[in-house]
Specification:
Helix content is 70%, strand content 0%. The protein has 53 residues and is an all-alpha fold. The N and C termini lie far apart (29 Å).
Length: 53
């Protein structure tokens, strides 16, 4: 999958990069061969980690 990121003159590209990273994290978690409850637990741990940093 090709992703094209346009870098504007302002700082909006930082939000774009954050969105793309979050999208990839979501895809990776969803593709894991584990139960829904385990995926939900991993998702919550990732959110907690991101809130701390």
């Amino acid at each position: 999958m090709d992703i094209k990121v346009n870098y504007p003159e302002n700082d909006n590209y930082i939000n774009n990069l954050a969105y793309i990273k979050a999208f990839f994290i979501k895809i990776e978690i969803e593709s894991l061969p584990i139960s829904f409850e385990e995926k939900k637990d991993i998702y919550n741990k990732v959110l907690d980690y991101l809130k701390e940093n």
